[in-house]
Amino acid sequence: MRNKAVEYPHPVLNEFTNDFIDSSFSINVKSHSDIGNDIVLELEYFLYCPGIAELLKTGDLKIIARITCYRTFFRKVENLNIDESTIINIPKKKVTDVLEIQASIVANENIPAFSIDEFNKDYFGNKSFRLRKGDIIANEPGIKIKLNTIFEKNASGVVQVTGSPDIAEMKVNYADINESNPALSNYIVITLPDTEYQNYAKLMTKKHKKNGIERFLQASIILPAITEAVAKLRMEEIVEDDDEMPKYKGTIWADSIMNALLSHGIDELATCTKSDYELANIILGYVANDAINNLMQKMTEWSTMRQEDDVL
Q1: Are 98 and 71 in contact (CB under 8 A)?
Q2: Could you read off the pLDDT of 210-245 as tens digits, one per residue?
Q3: Which end of the chain offers a freer environment for a tag, N or C, measured as fewer CB atoms within 10 Å?
Q4: Residues 300, 214: contact at Cβ < 8 Å?
């Protein structure tokens, strides 16, 4: 997973920047299999940026996916197919626990004058940039796959957190199948006021994540969003014949949540007796429990350090 908002000497498309207008890039695990000696993943990407798409077709750019298992130090880089899904085989004996996958779009050769219409003109005007082979043009947050009997995309990955200087309070958008804004399609998008977003980005750096802060952030920001998402999907089942209601199933966020619920034996929300909050907590790997236990551990550590300071 990307650890922090990296500053680049040229425009880069990702959730930390506004370098591109009305553009987005993400990946999804379309299908998977764990039969035999290999884990077989079918990856697909979603790109909305005509300028980058054209350079992919000409071969000036390419899409790569980095697959990592930190428990076994396994690392693999795969080129993704253009305009179609990509099959990736990973030997089971080389990985365990969790796989992390992050895709990037990189220069396939030296490009003396990189400039496309989607550049944010307020930032770059008509300027062009010299790219070296391997320079990153776009990257996305990445996804985690838990390696158990049923693989599922980490549900937190369907929630994208971004920032805007133009709002005073949080905004949340749940894309339906008719969403026309490419920046909002297929995902749950949480937009924070700029100051709060900058703080969020800092807390998501490696320095803080290694202290367990990611689960706190998921409990405070992602869990409520997934709870409301489950509620919307439940309502969609209950009033499925109402043409006036938004249709969410068929988007990446809705299908990912339904697949996660199915892996826990829940195939119908309309008749499920568990609350929306309980279900959201389950598919996020009992994040509320982790956050409470991690906080208790930190409080104990801080208390011990204070006692030691008092003695000194």
Answers
A1: yes
A2: 566 778 888 999 999 999 999 999 999 998 777 788
A3: C
A4: no
pLDDT confidence of residue 218: 87
pLDDT exceeds 80 at position 34: no
Interatomic CA distance for residues 205 and 199, integer angstroms: 10
| Residue 218: Cβ-neighbour burial (10 angstroms; 0-12, 13-18, 19+) | buried
The single-letter DSSP state of residue 118 is T
Residues 215, 217, 220, 222, Cα dihedral to 10°: -90
Q: How far apart are CA 264 and CA 71, in angstroms?
A: 25
Q: Which of 115, 145, 150 is nearest to 20 (CA)?
A: 115
**Across the chain, what does the average pLDDT equal?**
85
> Is residue 312 scored above 60 in pLDDT?
no
Task: Report the C-alpha gap between 34 and 264 in whole angstroms.
Answer: 18
Give the chain's largest Cα–Cα span. 70
DSSP lists the bridge partners of residue 291 as none
Amino acid making up residue 12: V
CB 177 within 8 A of CB 250: yes
Tokens of 31: 């299908």
Phi first, then psi, for residue 184 (nearest 5°) are -115, -10
The first and second tokens of residue 273, run together, are 């007796």
Whole-number percent of the chain with pLDDT over 90: 43
pTM reported for the whole predicted model = 0.53
Residue type, 294: N
Can you tell me the distance from the alpha carbon of 227 to that of 123, in angstroms, rounded to the nearest whole number? 37
